[in-house]
Amino acid sequence: MNNERRKQIEAINGRIAVLLSEAENIKTDVEAIRDDEQEYRDNMPESFGEGEKGEKADAAIAALEQVIEDLESLIDNDFSGQLDTAAE
Question: What count of Cα atoms within 13 Å lies in the side-chain half-sphere of residue 2?
């Protein structure tokens, strides 16, 4: 690998660091929304919890949990290690 491409990889690593930091912030925000929705669901009267409102809350919680899992996968990915290997 020549120096020019190494510098490009170094710049990409910096951009990825910014992206991952933002992904972590987004994950924290989504977790807070999920927690609020879960609290809403937990405190819902039984008659609502067994009906359409309960189903919608459950679906929202499940969707938010999937987003959190997907963000965690992104955050846990070893982009930097792979790029370092490429730059060798």
Answer: 1
